[in-house]
Design a protein that fits this description.
Length: 223
């Protein structure tokens, strides 16, 4: 649908009705490059109604936005430790129903190292990782999950959103226009267009001097 354009759910519904060969739908829950939060619950309902399988990249939403793999009909949910779970990089994980994982036995592995079926079998049957585990990253994830559970996703989401609201209100007063329409923005990331006459490097360096870090999106998004 294009960068920063909300998903047209009716178009997805129509495409699935029209083409029986579509077996899976893939969704990036939060498009981190644009700050757009996609409507997982609504899409999940459509995909389930058409009896297809839903794969969700929830990497930058886990911990920050509501997500329920059962209620939202997510078959494959992919996450990492290092975004809104606030852990260290080094661990990623996939959540899927046991029946889907067992179904992987019919899929020929495409890579040796990232063979999900082999990882699942090793961890499930042998109670051990397939390769040398990054033990320090797993311990860090365990602590990060404890802290997430302690804070709760609802409170963390509100914490992010309150800060985002402050930044958004302040930048709006200075003529910065958000890329993504209101109502479609995630709580963790906001992308703004540079107003005329403001140079990115200058803005970055001035903010950095005051202890704030921003990063630039691909230039095509700013236009
Ligand atoms: C960061 C990110 C990735 C990549 O995850 P890494 O942990 O950086 O490898 C994939 N998808 C989304 C939506 C992300 O935000």
């Amino acid at each position: 649908f294009g960068w920063g354009q909300p998903i047209d759910l009716a178009a997805v519904d129509a495409a699935l009705a029209e083409d029986a060969t579509i077996s899976h739908v893939g969704l990036v829950h939060h498009e981190t490059s644009t700050g757009m939060l996609n409507p997982l619950a609504e899409l999940g309902e459509i995909v389930a109604r058409h009896d297809r399988s839903l794969i969700v990249d929830a990497i930058s939403t886990l911990g920050a936005e509501p997500l329920d793999v059962v209620a939202d009909h997510v078959d494959w949910c992919v996450g990492t430790a290092n975004k809104c779970l606030e852990g260290l990089p080094g661990t990623s994980f996939v959540c899927a129903p046991r029946s889907s994982l067992d179904g992987l036995s019919e899929v020929r592995p495409r890579t040796y190292y990232l063979d999900l079926r082999a990882h699942h079998v090793a961890q499930d049957r042998d109670r051990a990782p397939l390769f040398t585990p990054a033990v320090q990253a797993l311990y860090a994830l365990d602590v990060a999950l404890d802290l997430t559970l302690e804070e709760t996703v609802a409170v963390r989401s509100r914490r992010y959103r309150e800060r985002a609201d402050r930044v958004r209100a302040h930048l709006a007063r200075h003529g910065f226009e958000p890329l993504v329409p209101d109502g479609h923005r995630a709580s963790s990331v906001t992308v703004f267009r540079l107003p005329d006459g403001v140079e990115y490097q200058h803005l970055h360096d001035r903010l950095k001097a005051d202890g704030f870090v921003i990063y630039g999106c691909p230039p095509r998004l700013g236009r």
